[in-house]
Specification:
With 461 residues, the protein is α/β, with parallel strands linked by helices. 45% of the residues lie in helices and 8% in strands.
């Protein structure tokens, strides 16, 4: 060693010597403080060649696809409260202890309400804040297509994105789920949390296998259905407010042409356009696209077309997107009884309908409560001003009425008219002084109840 140092005091031999000085024999420490193994102190029966396979920390077994988040939605506007709520749910530094952390957040709402746009925008904001250094995984589960993505396929896609080579891909769903959780656990230790954005889920069964076991990860789900079975933070979306809808129209037109001021030049007519679109983001974007495709078309002309149309949905189609097609994806998944109820609710008079009128519509002695709540979970029906009252989004009403056959509609309207006539006569009997018929009216116990019924059903009557 002395001869080596004399010949090359600052070269390889010197480096070896200095490394040996740092590690006392038998200490078990690495000579180089790096990826070399220390064989000193070993007992060998014959000549030995040591071979060490080194896998660098954090290295993937194959190519990864951890930056598959779609681009930010153009023209995204509003949703300030919902965005803040979602960020609080995803915050890795939340106030909850790890054992009780909510790993899943679920955004639900009517088709076209802007669930995916909100989820993608929020994911971009989370990334800008430095959250989820382990990466972001995005998968479209196609839950409302004719062939939704199965758990087996989604796990395979996510494992591939995490760098699992085909030859190491397990064959069964359970094995894939176990490897998926294990891979994410390793990633959490080495790089940090991962956000999994599962778009367009139709059931909890599609999502459960994708939930990691490590509390540093989060799953963000979008669905047309509420998914309370997941134990998730639930965030239902409603249509946009008046100002938000107006801003979306204006912003969408100015993206196509920064000098297009048609919305701002006629705010009253633009508000009317937003109303005819039901403040539904998809419908608003389609309306903006129709205007952008025809720069000389006044907003008032499109408003007139929508207002005078026999079926408004025929006009809310820009060739690539269609409100009717969005609703059909939800409608065709309904069991026959729920599909029939949706069609009949669309024919109900007034902006809201009571349980008793629902019963009359379907021709039953009592309302189909289970079917009503199923439609509400699917965001095709909304609860009204008080419990026991229901309403439909304006465009869902147009869609449902268009799906009803003429004979079916005529029979339902006749039942509702008969119900209103019988109840109105019974209530009126209580309003007449000293009426002999008042004792036989049945549904009402007095004048106050009769008046309350007239007041509640005024719009329908």
């Amino acid at each position: 060693m002395a001869q080596l140092l004399a010949a090359e005091p600052s070269g390889v031999a010197g480096a070896v010597a200095r490394a040996m000085e740092r590690s006392a024999p038998g200490s078990g420490a690495s000579w180089y403080g790096g990826d070399h193994a220390d064989f000193r102190g070993g007992v060998f029966l014959r000549e030995v060649i040591g071979v060490q396979v080194v896998i660098q920390e954090g290295a993937a077994a194959g190519p990864e696809a951890m930056a598959g988040l779609p681009p930010r939605p153009g023209g995204f506007t509003g949703r300030d409260r919902e965005t803040a709520d979602l960020l609080r749910a995803l915050d890795p530094a939340g106030t909850r202890p790890a054992a009780s952390a909510v790993l899943v957040a679920s955004v639900s709402g009517l088709g076209g309400i802007g669930k995916t746009a909100l989820a993608v925008e929020t994911a971009h904001l989370a990334r800008e804040r430095g959250w989820f250094p382990g990466g972001i995984l995005f998968i479209d589960l196609h839950g409302y297509d004719r062939e939704p993505v199965t758990a087996d396929r989604s796990l395979r896609a996510l494992l591939h994105a995490l760098g699992t080579p085909p030859e190491r891909m397990p064959t069964t769903t359970d094995e894939r789920a176990a490897l998926y959780r294990s891979t994410l656990a390793v990633r959490a230790r080495e790089r940090g949390g991962v956000l999994v954005l599962a778009d367009n889920a139709s059931s909890a069964d599609q999502v459960r296998p994708l939930v990691p076991g490590d509390s540093r990860h989060r799953v963000l789900v979008t669905s047309r259905d509420r998914l309370p079975q997941l134990g998730a933070r639930l965030l239902p979306l409603d249509e946009l407010g008046t100002e938000e809808a107006y801003e979306l129209l204006d912003r969408a037109l100015r993206i196509a042409d920064p000098h297009d001021g048609r919305v701002g030049d006629d705010p009253g007519t633009s508000d009317r356009l937003a109303s005819l679109c039901g403040h539904l983001p998809l419908a608003l974007q389609i309306a903006a696209a129709l205007l952008a495709a025809d720069p000389g078309k006044p907003v008032s002309e499109l408003v007139a077309e929508l207002a005078e149309a026999h079926d408004r949905l025929d006009h809310l189609d820009d060739g690539a997107r269609s409100v009717r097609a969005a609703f059909e994806l939800s409608y065709r998944r309904l069991p026959p009884e729920q599909a029939r109820l949706l069609r009949l609710l669309a024919l109900a008079p007034g902006p809201e309908v009571s349980d008793e009128v629902v019963a009359a519509l379907v021709g039953a002695g009592r309302p189909p409560v289970r079917d009503q709540h199923a439609l509400a979970r699917a965001h095709l029906v909304e609860t009204g001003r008080t419990r026991g009252w229901w309403r439909l989004h304006d465009l869902v009403r147009v869609f449902g009425a268009g799906m009803a056959a003429r004979a079916e509609g005529d029979a339902a309207r006749a039942r509702v008219l008969r119900h209103y006539l019988e109840r109105a006569r019974a209530a009126d009997a209580h309003l007449k002084p000293h009426s002999e018929a008042a004792e036989e009216t049945g549904p009402f116990r007095g004048r106050a109840e009769a008046l309350a019924w007239f007041d509640a059903e005024r719009a329908g009557l």
